[in-house]
Fold this protein.
Amino acid sequence: GLLDMSSLNAVHSHMMKLLAARGGRIDAVFFCPHTVEEACDCRKPLPGMLHDIARRYGADLRQVPLVGDTLRDLLAAQAAGCEPHLVLSGRAAALGEAELAQVLAQVPSARLHADLAAFAEDLLRRFHPQALDSGPGRLGR
């Protein structure tokens, strides 16, 4: 209920144009259009949408890191079998220490990152350490 479909499509279009201008692309955008009352399985924290994505791309969700900024994101990752990651930007930026501890206690396997850039660096460090080597285009600081 935050946006109508026209506004949502405009946001996605703008996001894709900005990314394309930097040489990137988004293959697909997935979202749940249902209200809580509709009791669908694609609304987080349920994993239905993640299962749909896995089927579409032939992905093993146990090999997929899922990053989010809410407990619902982490619970959806956990329910789908994904590796949960929490970024302390966006909505999570407002969490106090006690609230953050409560969130992490509910999903103890969650990894914590300052922001999306820190999440990306963590993934590169773990799976493609050569990408962080010094030189032109170096991601590291």
In short: The radius of gyration is 17 Å.
